[in-house]
Amino acid sequence: MSYEFLSLNVQDGIGTITIERPKMLNALSSEVLVELGSLVSEIAVNKEIDVVIVTGSGEKAFVAGADISEMKDKNVLEGKEFSIEGNQAFAKLAKLPQPTIACINGFALGGGCELALACDIRLASFNAKFGQPEVGLGIIPGFGGTQRLPRLVGTGVAKELIFTGKVIGVEEAHRIGLVNHIYEQAELLEEGMKLAKSIQKNAFLAVSGSKSVIDNGLDMSLENGLNLEAQVFGSLFATADQTEGMEAFVNKRKPTFTKN
Ligand code: CO8
């Protein structure tokens, strides 16, 4: 499928999705969300892509939110449908077998902050700004912000951000754990690639397995989460990469993983 509002660039097994709507600060319209859902479905079964980076086009915005001009005339049913559309696209992204890194190159507001939250790891440039300003528009975060933000930064901090709608700078975003690392904008994607490569060198099934155990475990009791961990841990002993990884260690050589 070809995409009007997204691009995918694959380099050495690392796929970079760029939201391409710079004149609207990459705002998420229904069309963008539909495209994102189908691109992510394609990536999920693409064995050539080991790690995914998500970023925004231009130097000003990652994504400045859902498209307010499209949203403003929606009725109750249409508002709910739009939220479900966004949630489905973001859920597909969050559940990708590949690890995902958001490279936040500017404004990440509303749906933009929620897009970053649907990724596994967040890197940002010094000009990045974050916020969930929805209550100032008479709505609530509708693409996962009420659920993923408190899981990441804690309930009290998330409630303050959502209730006030305030926009925070990157240093504060880093302090509260919303962002892992901050870089100069010119270096952001390069740093994203470096991080992607440092993940890619490991056994894919193990990285992917740890991602699913972490994410699924967050919604379970500790006991059930530990049981899930034991199951997936055990299942990896059926993989060629477990044999290779441990043989390489005892023979003091570097492993060559095959994703099997
Ligand atoms: N939607 C539509 N258009 C936008 C958006 C947006 N979210 N953000 C920016 N734009 C447009 C502007 O209208 C402007 O268009 P034009 O050139 O035609 O006038 C263009 O992008 C450039 O923006 P500005 O001129 O405003 O640029 P500034 O540098 O002055 O300001 C800001 C940058 C501060 C980012 C400002 O654009 C802004 O406040 N944008 C809106 C931010 C916001 O409130 N985002 C949250 C939206 S709500 C949301 O995401 C809810 C998600 C859940 C939905 C649930 C479904 C029901």
UniProtKB/TrEMBL annotation:
Keywords: Lyase. It holds the Pfam family ECH_1. The keyword Lyase applies. Gene3D superfamilies: 2-enoyl-CoA Hydratase, Chain A, domain 1 (3.90.226.10), Lyase 2-enoyl-coa Hydratase, Chain A, domain 2 (1.10.12.10). Signal peptide: none annotated. Belongs to the enoyl-CoA hydratase/isomerase family. This is Enoyl-CoA hydratase/isomerase family protein. The lineage of its organism: Bacteria, Bacillati, Bacillota, Bacilli, Lactobacillales.
